[in-house]
Design goal:
Length: about 290
């Protein structure tokens, strides 16, 4: 028997219904949820496609979406000025900045300017700190998505051993904090950690967020565990075409986990749920501001 698959598309769809309902309730109270996004330049097709897809999804769910496009020559002051202006507008519920930014502009310096109460990506350092203290629900979207996917399996996190592979500021570290808040025993490691396979075999919940294709092999998982794959890697397949894969060697790991285990795929796992968590943050920010 093989492990069950956590279907991110299905889980994301269930949250879309909730988001639409809450967005409708806001409109009934005279305040529409509104997301304003800043896109700098148009050279990165992936960023533009994501922005356009995001707008389409917002409109489907009853969320207003305004895209602010700045030219590729936009300076730090240009981008910062737009973010600070959006912070002051009462009708704007949420603000985000699409990446990448021009090479001379530090993303951190821009993201820290987003007002914490409108920071629906959870990238302002103040919000990261508030997550540690349990004083904000606007957690980084990918971290929130991981927790929702774990909850979907029905596992009780209290007292369980959770291993997080990868410690990036907006993914690995916030995931570790959110797991701690649910009383899991958390081990944070990375691709350089000695004897990492031994650590991973102890995990009741294993989060792969290192950005290393195939890092999590069948020998490194505990039968019956929950494995969430956050990795997004582009590789050339046997047919010469590019494909997206995660950090988990999916088929062998699914077999090794066996009946009672759970594993998320890439694509179709964390990605769709992350988008739903972003839009859930938008309506939650609008509710708090109202």
């Amino acid at each position: 028997m093989t492990a069950s698959i956590i279907d991110g598309k299905h889980l994301a769809a269930s949250y879309r219904d909730l988001i639409a309902k809450r967005a409708g309730a806001l409109r009934d109270r005279g305040r529409a949820a509104r997301l304003d996004a800043v896109l700098v330049g148009s050279e990165d097709n992936a960023a533009r496609q994501y922005a356009e897809s995001q707008g389409k999804t917002c409109r489907e769910l009853g969320i207003e979406y305004v895209l602010h496009e700045l030219g590729s020559g936009a300076s730090f002051d240009d981008i910062a000025g737009r973010v600070l202006l959006l912070n002051t507008k009462e009708e704007v519920s949420a603000v985000m900045v699409h990446l990448p930014l021009p090479g001379a502009v530090d993303p951190y310096s821009i993201q820290r300017l987003i007002a914490p109460e409108k920071d629906v990506e959870g990238v302002n350092p103040a919000n990261i700190g508030n997550i540690v203290y349990g004083r904000s629900s606007l957690a980084p979207c990918t971290a929130s998505a991981v927790i929702k996917m774990i909850e979907h399996t029905g596992i009780e996190l209290r007292g369980k051993t959770a291993v997080v592979v990868g410690a990036s500021n907006h993914v690995g570290k916030p995931i570790a904090v959110l797991l701690m808040r649910q009383d899991a025993t958390v081990v944070s490691c990375n691709k350089w950690t000695p004897a990492i396979d031994d650590l991973m075999r102890r995990a009741d919940v294993l989060i792969a967020a290192a950005g290393v294709p195939g890092l999590i092999a069948a020998r490194a998982v505990k039968p019956g565990a929950v494995v969430i794959d956050v990795g997004v890697n582009r590789l050339k397949g046997d047919d010469g075409r590019m494909k997206t894969v995660g950090d988990v060697d999916f088929d062998p790991v699914r077999l090794a986990l066996g009946e009672g285990g759970w594993v998320s795929p890439v694509p179709g796992g964390v990605g769709p749920v992350t988008i739903s968590m972003l839009l859930l943050n938008v309506v939650e920010a609008a509710e708090h501001q109202l």
